[in-house]
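Progress report, Aim 2. The chain analyzed during this reporting quarter is listed below.
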Amino acid sequence: MKLGKIKKATFKWHGSQSKLALLFLFSIVSSVISATEFEQCEVAAPLASWDFNAGESPQNGNSVVQWDDDHHNIQPVPDTDLQGVKFFFAGGGPNKDATSEWRYEIKKPVQNTWEYLKFYQPINFYHRAITKITAPELLDETKWNKGDAIENDKGVTAKVHSVEGDILYIVDFYERFSKNWGSERLIQNKTTGANFVAVSSRFLTYNNKLSAQWQGRYANAGMILETQAITPHHDGTMGVGYCRPTIIGTDWHKSTTARNTFFNREESACFDPADNGKVVEFVIERKRSTSATAQDGGYKIWKKVDNGAWKLIHLNTSEKSYQQGQNYFDHGYVLGWSNSGFDEDMRFFLLGWQLWDQKPDFLP
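Predicted structure tokens for the chain:
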């Protein structure tokens, strides 16, 4: 009885303080819960997402993005346990380009986008670049064989791709331009000893599309990520598809290439033959300029190979990319026209795709 009285008395003596403590504790818990709920509401999420490798059909509806078709739907990646949407580029001769493009509509226009793409890169990928040289007479095909070593009178090297009549097509050249392969240049086959003096030369276009977004009619105010070949003379490696982010002109600014300003203009590799047969992922950030005069638009590009870490490989957000009245994106496509073409059939597989209106939380 005495113990009970002591407890009761003690409780009475601390009664007002206990109530205040309980109220204080309750306010802290409520704040923590509210903060947690707020944080949960603010977790970044894509506007649209498809995991094709998991079997999610492109025909599945989405309130933000609508694909034009199913692009032949999901197909298995040969000799792997992967599956995705296939992009087939038919191989062909030196003048043969190729295309495989998948378009979509952004039904909720977005001013700044982060596009996520997950590819299976073909086992035989090689970004082709060809120069065409005209000889003064028909060439003996037995003396100009594919892979033969070529050198001009200035010591600039290349390899034979093919011969058609009086035309010699070369690849893997140290440098292009007619000053190296054009009029009056001595072209020597170091493998067979054959030679001729060139009449003229012309390099064939070798920029390819990787991803595009624009507003309204194609390619109005477009921001199109291309890939291109870069010669060893300019510190490139032949066969690599280097990133070439472009900004299409409008009434408010001219077309431009958003060079890689952050990394001392170092060229960044989008598709590298070293990654053939691997899973290659990209996030492409496209940013509209905030006004007609502001130079605060451009690109950031991140890349990841297999289970490696995400790396920022390209940055330039000091360009003009403004569109009066419709300063946003409402259309896009994946891959597209390959001006370079390919010697062999090429099969890319899109394993996953997402569209964000803020930086994805998986990026560094």
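Residues 86 and 349 are 4 Å apart (CA to CA). The chain has three domains: 2-36, 48-127+206-356, 131-203. These observations will guide the mutagenesis work planned for the next reporting period.
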